[in-house]
């Protein structure tokens, strides 16, 4: 089996309840199931990690550095000031895709710059939970597992 890391930052554990007009009605469990479904045909497993603590997210990235073929990362608000998460992702060798549920560029100005996105292999924002499905397909493509 091959593993991918699905990393979700602060406040994403309450998806479905949290501002559904912005973030949608899908729960984090729905999203994890969606990603699992997308990568199952390739024999991939999903290591899903969500935490409110940047330190725990950094630890998850370090643990996955050499045991995963890629990652899907929604850093949430840590995209703006999560410098230790950014540094951990800089040390993560496999490809990874940054995902945001909302269109960050249609929101407040302070959300328009991500400190993590320049390191990502790809960036998806503004299409809700479906963005995670596209990120999973992107990782399959980058790994050559979509053939």
From TrEMBL:
Q: In which pathway does it act?
A: Metabolic intermediate biosynthesis; chorismate biosynthesis; chorismate from D-erythrose 4-phosphate and phosphoenolpyruvate: step 3/7
* Annotated GO biological process: amino acid biosynthetic process; aromatic amino acid family biosynthetic process; chorismate biosynthetic process; quinate catabolic process
- Which reaction is recorded as catalysed by this protein? 3-dehydroquinate = 3-dehydroshikimate + H2O
Q: Which UniProt keywords apply?
A: Amino-acid biosynthesis, Aromatic amino acid biosynthesis, Lyase
Q: Where is the active site?
A: 23, 100
Spell out the molecular function terms from Gene Ontology: 3-dehydroquinate dehydratase activity
**What is this enzyme's EC?**
4.2.1.10
Q: Where is this site: Transition state stabilizer?
A: 18
Q: Is Acetylation there in the keyword field? A: no
Q: Which SUPFAM superfamilies match?
A: Type II 3-dehydroquinate dehydratase (SSF52304)
Which residues bind substrate per the record?
74, 87, 101-102, 111
- For whether the record's keyword set contains Amino-acid biosynthesis, the answer is yes
Name one matching Pfam family.
DHquinase_II
Q: Which NCBIfam families match?
A: PRK05395.1-2, PRK05395.1-4
Function recorded in the entry: Catalyzes a trans-dehydration via an enolate intermediate.
Q: How does it assemble?
A: Homododecamer.
Q: Which family does it belong to?
A: Belongs to the type-II 3-dehydroquinase family.
What protein name is recorded for this chain? 3-dehydroquinate dehydratase
Q: What organism is this sequence from?
A: Actinacidiphila oryziradicis
């Amino acid at each position: 089996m091959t593993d991918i890391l699905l990393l979700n930052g602060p406040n994403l554990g309450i998806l479905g309840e949290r501002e559904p007009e912005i973030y949608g009605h899908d729960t984090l469990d729905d999203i994890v199931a969606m990603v699992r479904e997308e990568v199952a045909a390739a024999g991939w497993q999903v290591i899903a990690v969500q935490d409110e603590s940047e330190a725990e997210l950094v630890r998850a990235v370090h643990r996955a550095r050499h045991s995963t073929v890629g990652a899907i990362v929604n850093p949430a608000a840590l995209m703006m000031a999560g410098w230790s998460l950014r540094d951990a992702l800089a040390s993560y060798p496999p490809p990874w895709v940054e995902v945001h549920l909302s269109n960050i560029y249609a929101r407040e100005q302070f959300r328009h710059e991500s400190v993590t996105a320049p390191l990502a292999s790809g960036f998806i924002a503004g299409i809700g939970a479906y963005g995670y499905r596209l990120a999973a397909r992107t990782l399959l493509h980058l790994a050559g597992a979509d053939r």
